[in-house]
Specification:
The chain is of the alpha/beta class and 442 residues long. It is built from 13 helices and 25 strands. The protein starts with a strand and ends with a helix.
């Protein structure tokens, strides 16, 4: 899931920085983390011809287009569009890419140390590290659940799923039931999108092996009273209906707490009673925790929120270190924003705008992030686009498009966003050709 992408609104209050404040020293600008915030900061700096040497550092060699990770798992979209290499994306951009692991960040000394032994002093810093898997203190969750946030996770999950289905064809009784039960911890956007995808995908795979798809069981476990907390009731109802219309209906266990995870077993607390759910596949989709590098930063306690996230000014700078910009899951503004690709994308564009403004002798400008709607995958070739439509400055109206048309809107929005113009054009043309010609029936 993600919000529909839009450009951030830069509130124009152009002021020139007095000459003594104009940055003279040409220390590099460092961008830590190559997710949406980090990568789109780099790409926008390149487009704006930012003159300060800039380095993007990430431990992986490839960008992960996380909203399309479900398509990567199901094979609905070519992997070259979902995980392009950073060195390809940044080719001739003027941005240097370093693949390395960040070991420490010293804000006082303006220094970043890497696992390779390299260290860099910076003039400007962009923190775009994102979060890490958060297991909510549930015993056994880290050891016995499968994550779903990288292409490596998706590859491992696909292999595991096929293995379970294959073994189930030769199993009986409780063993077979366990192999064919797929439990997803969390009823937020990731959990619901993944559940809907699996509820369509697994029957296809199992039927090809000669299995009876009515034996399959996909279960979502949600602690709260409803799925998709924080979203509109209409969207929530659309999602619940779609989950029941999949090739295998998705079971929702609401008001159910995960107490412990053991090998092939989830211990649940439900209706004041303890229950056990046997499942050979247990996927964790219950949110993120603060990146340890962010947690270790030496900043005043008042400059963090209760979750440890960094508080930002309206120009996306740290309260105590104006040379440091930040965005994404590790940050919070005065008006909290959802941790979505749309927000991170806009923050990256806004950070680049303000870095360029400072380099040109101007003050950074306040940023207004615009939310234009929600895109939610609800199965193979099916999505919902919950749009906020604005007409001539009037109050936005909610408009929902679902089914295959919603899927086309979602795919078009994401394909258009794929980094670099050449990739956008090629991806759009190939996708449109597939949809227009392969969707026609006679």
């Amino acid at each position: 899931m993600s919000n529909i992408m839009t450009e951030p609104k830069i509130l124009d209050k152009t002021l020139t920085v007095p000459a003594p404040l104009v940055e003279v020293q040409k220390l590099p600008a460092l961008i830590l983390g190559g997710g949406f915030t980090g990568l789109f900061t780099a790409l926008n700096l390149s487009h704006q011809h930012y003159q300060t040497p800039t380095i993007l550092i990430d431990r992986d060699s490839k960008f992960i287009f996380k909203p399309l990770l479900y398509e990567f798992l199901s094979g609905e979209m070519d992997t070259r569009y979902i995980c392009p290499r950073y060195d390809t994306l940044l080719h001739r951009s003027g941005i240097e890419f370093i693949q390395d692991t960040i070991e420490s960040i010293d804000l006082q000394q303006r220094q970043v140390k890497l696992a390779s032994g390299l260290h860099y002093n910076y003039g400007k810093l962009v923190l775009a590290l994102g979060g890490v898997a958060g297991y909510c203190g549930v015993s056994g969750a880290k050891e016995y659940t499968l994550p779903f946030s990288t292409t490596e996770d998706a590859v491992a999950l696909a292999k595991h799923l096929r293995d379970c289905l294959q073994r189930a064809t030769q199993a009986t009784g409780i063993e077979k039931q366990t192999l064919l039960t797929f439990a997803i911890m969390g009823g937020g956007c990731t959990g619901i999108e993944l559940a809907a995808t699996l509820a369509d995908l697994l029957p296809n795979w199992y039927a090809a092996l000669g299995g009876d798809i009515t034996d399959l069981r996909v279960v979502v476990i949600q602690r709260g009273q409803q799925i998709l907390k924080g979203h509109r009731d209409k969207l929530r109802q659309t999602a619940q209906t779609a989950l029941q219309e999949r090739n295998v209906a998705v079971e929702l266990l609401l008001e159910t707490e995960v107490v412990e995870v053991r090998p092939n077993t989830v211990i649940l607390q439900r209706n004041n009673h303890s229950e056990e759910l046997s499942a050979a596949t247990i996927i964790w989709a219950m949110g993120t925790a603060i990146n340890p590098l962010i947690a270790k930063l030496s900043i005043p306690e008042a400059s963090r929120d209760k979750q440890g996230r960094l508080k930002l000014t309206d120009t996306l700078q740290l309260l105590d270190f104006p040379e440091v910009f930040a965005g994404g899951d590790c940050t919070v503004m005065e008006q909290p924003l959802p941790a979505t690709a749309q927000v991170a994308y806009q923050q990256g564009a806004a950070i680049a705008h303000n870095l360029t403004a400072i380099a040109e002798g101007h003050l950074p400008q306040p940023v207004e992030i615009g939310l234009r709607g929600i895109l939610l995958k609800l199965g193979l070739d099916e999505s919902v686009a919950d749009l906020d439509v604005r007409v001539m400055g009037a109050k936005p109206l909610s408009y929902e498009v679902k089914g295959h048309l919603g899927h086309l809107i979602r795919q078009a929005a994401y394909v258009d966003l794929l980094p670099t113009p050449a990739r956008n054009f090629k991806g759009t043309i190939e996708w449109l050709a597939d949809e227009l010609f392969n969707s026609v029936t006679v």
